[in-house]
Amino acid sequence: MDYNSNRVKLLLPEYGRNVQMMVDFAMKIEDRDERNKAAKTIISIMGNMYPHLRDVSDFRHKLWDHLAIMTDFEFDIDSPYELPTKEKLAEKPDVLPYNNHRIKFRHYGKIIESMIKKAIEIDDQKEQSALISMIANHMKKSYTNWNKDGVTDEKIFKDITALSGGKLTIPENLRLRETHDKDFQSKKKTFHKNEPRKFTKKK
After folding, report:
1. 133 Cβ partners below 8 Å, 6+ apart?
2. How far apart are CA 176 and CA 33, in angstroms?
3. Is 21 helix (H, G, I), strand (E, B) or coil?
4. Least packed by Cβ within 10 Å: which of 71, 99, 114, 150?
5. Rounded Cα–Cα distance for residues 79 and 190 (Å)
6. What residue spans carry the region label Disordered (predicted)?
7. How far is CA 187 from the centre of its chain?
8. What's the sign of the alpha-carbon dihedral 67, 68, 74, 79?
9. Residues 60 and 115 in one domain
10. Is-contact 155 170, C-beta < 8 A?
């Protein structure tokens, strides 16, 4: 019996051994024109395995890259794209810096802190008050999602003062929306007792 475990390991197993055998055969073709034709045929076969992507330009570029990998970068052909190199593929990506930013009130999120910093920079009193009102209402909504028991307006105002380092003044007579308003409730579809529910099959 000829078991796969006894065969040469496939460089890209997702294309299967038959495609790899075609690639190995094409590499032995001495005539360059015939070798180019064979390469294009193999690319077409590889693309047929993913018909919804085969006509996408970036995907075709990827197919030619995969063909180069399957030949261990030794396929001498006229590729329509610049082929990768072993060294390029072996390069490690740059290390992404870890975000060490500490959020003072995690239930409000980092965006709220950024919005408060922006509000501090606004000179126009009317515009600043409008933004504070918007921020406060959003904070109340976020707090309610975190604590279902609700929250007072005074608590939100106190947190805004803390987050702004005392640089923001809460507008006089500012009243926030009540937690039972529709803006604070998750939008869930309700069904009548005798109404059949419609379900969609997961693909």
Report:
1. 171, 174, 176
2. 75
3. helix
4. 99
5. 58
6. 179-203
7. 25
8. positive
9. no
10. no
Per the structure block, which two tokens stand in for 76?
Answer: 């001498």
- Residue 87 confidence (pLDDT): 83
74: tokens are 């030794």
| This model's pTM is above 0.70 | no
User: Which residues of the chain are under the pLDDT cut of 70?
Assistant: 1-6, 54-55, 99-101, 179-203
Residue 112: helix, strand or coil by DSSP? helix
The domain boundary, picked from 45, 60, 90, lies at 90
In order, the DSSP letters of 114-147 are: HHHHHHHH---HHHHHHHHHHHHHHHHHHHHHH-
Domains in the chain, number: 2
Among candidates 122, 123, 105, 121, which has minimal Cα distance to 113? 105
Instruction: Please tell me the distance from the alpha carbon of residue 82 to that of residue 68, in angstroms, as a whole number.
Output: 10
What is the domain extent for residue 155? 110-177
Q: Cα(127)–Cα(165) distance, rounded to whole angstroms?
A: 20
Residue 148, both tokens: 């279902």
Q: DSSP label at 91?
A: P
Provide the token pair at 47. Answer: 């693309």
Instruction: Report d(CA 133, CA 124) in Å as an integer.
Output: 14
